[in-house]
Amino acid sequence: MNILMFGPNGSGKGTQGAIVKKKYNLPHIESGAIFRENIGKGTEIGLKAKEYINRGELVPDEITIPMILDRLKKDDCKKGWLLDGFPRSKEQAVKLDEALKASGLALNVVIEVGLDREIAKNRIMGRRLCANDNNHPNNVFIDAIKPKGDKCRVCGGKLSSRADDQDGEAINKRHNIYYDTQTGTLAAAYYFKGLAKKDPKIKYVTIDGAPSLEKVNAELMSKLPS
Q1: Cβ distance 63 to 10 under 8 Å?
Q2: pTM score, whole prediction
Q3: CB 64 within 8 A of CB 95
Q4: What number of other Cβ atoms are within 10 A of residue 32's Cβ?
Q5: CA 226 to CA 221: how far, in whole Å?
Q6: Phi, psi for residue 192 in degrees, rounded to 5
Q7: What's the rounded Cα separation, in Å, for the pair 186 and 212?
Q8: CATH class as words, domain 2-115+186-223
């Protein structure tokens, strides 16, 4: 099962991705991790990527896509993969589609976690980290996991917030890219949605990320292939 996953920061995409990974026993491939791995190992393509990163420039698709394809061809991906964090633009979607087809890698499922932009921003700014366990869910804007004052709702530990979670301008910039339906990440998702309408072998799954984690997960599981 080869899966692409889309969703704005704050939508719970990472949590749902972990559930999908477990359901199909797939490696969760995240684009940022691929860069770090190649740069850390000093691979030829990683060194090329590092040159751009060191100059503060975006790594060209001509480097990024081969790096991703190389990862998708490794032994742990033989039974499938879950790709998250790429593509981020319509142009990248077209190039990835062409590269997958040229490599004989069939795309089976595309998941889009939808969420209102303002809700997504509030969720990010409302996240709180427990000093005892960062996995304890605490968010001041979500009633189901609202902390007890400044204490963790799970264990009572001290809570803090990440600086980047409180940077509204930075969140807006990320969301400007994601919610752009002409050239941005949603445009990339819609490109694959168009492919799915023409190709019955591709299933495009849309879920609402607004309800509780349990409800979102139940909707996702009901729409995924068995």
Answers
A1: no
A2: 0.89
A3: no
A4: 10
A5: 9
A6: -70, -30
A7: 23
A8: alpha beta
